[in-house]
Amino acid sequence: MNKPLTLAAILLAGLSLTAHAATAAPAKDPIQARKHVFKEYKKSFGAMGDMVKGKTAWNKDEFAKYAANMETLSSQPWQYFPAGSDKGKTEARAEIWTKPAEFKKQADSHQAKIAELAKVAATATTLADVKPAFGAAGQTCKACHDQFKKD
Ligand code: HEC
């Protein structure tokens, strides 16, 4: 009898924290907000991927600009996963909320790899310079999607 009560208390504490955060942030639907950030991800990361794949011409300044933009974006989606936002038009898996430490680990590792990519891109001259860091960053998208996103 004790265990469920404790869990309920933890969940309630989490909910009230979320409510506080919601008053501080602009009143937006969190599902829409995170999808919006991920759409911006797709624009920048997709354009970088096109250069890496040779679909578009390598341009080191453009690549560095996209990488810097990714670095800014990479801190943004995670605030938009409050408890309860697993309901609605979302591909987010319930595991985000049942395994929050795992989710945070993936998000942190992702941010670290994106930061590395931005650093490499800032001084890169050739496509070969950025390929490994781009690949490593891309792996963090896939790793998180495999575990936490429905497809
Ligand atoms: C730590 C986890 C995590 C990482 C890292 C991550 N994503 Fe996602 N991504 C998600 C989740 C969860 C969703 C589903 C969001 C929803 O539907 O509410 C998503 C959704 C998306 C979407 C769909 C947005 C839409 O229109 O509905 C795109 C595109 C996307 N991610 C691109 C990327 C790219 C590119 C990267 C890497 C540069 C990346 N993501 C890294 C968790 C992650």
From TrEMBL:
One of its GO terms (biological process) is electron transport chain. Residues 1-21 form the signal peptide. Keywords: Electron transport, Heme, Iron, Metal-binding, Signal, Transport. Binds 1 heme group per subunit. Heme c binds at C141, C144, H145. One of its GO terms (molecular function) is electron transfer activity. It holds the Pfam family Cytochrom_C_2. One of its GO terms (cellular component) is periplasmic space. Transmembrane segments: none annotated. This is Cytochrome C. The lineage of its organism: Bacteria, Pseudomonadati, Pseudomonadota, Betaproteobacteria, Neisseriales.
